[in-house]
Design goal:
Layout lengths: L1 H15 L1 H22 L6 H41 L1
Helix pairs in contact: 2-3
Length: 87
């Protein structure tokens, strides 16, 4: 039961941040692959790919938390302020 709740929360978090993931995954993948190449970590195949995907998801979610949510709040406040001033 607890495991199901955790899975649902993770799925909801990834779903909420999916647009940020879509926008930022390419930058994340390119930068991380360059870093991994310099460190010589590209020879591990599947592990390399899994690390890139996990890091891309984390980067997209962080962009959602620190960019999208604050901008949504700001725009919502601005929109409501304009609607009130016209009334």
């Amino acid at each position: 039961m607890v495991y199901s709740i955790i899975i649902l929360k993770v799925a909801k978090g990834v779903g909420d941040s999916s647009y940020s993931l879509y926008l930022f995954h390419k930058f994340s993948l390119v930068i991380l692959s360059m870093i991994f190449k310099k460190l010589g970590l590209t020879d591990f195949g599947y592990i390399f790919a899994i690390l890139l995907v996990i890091r891309s998801i984390i980067t997209g979610h962080l962009c959602y938390i620190f960019l999208d949510k604050p901008m949504d709040k700001l725009l919502f406040r601005y929109k409501n302020k304009r609607a009130i001033s016209y009334a």
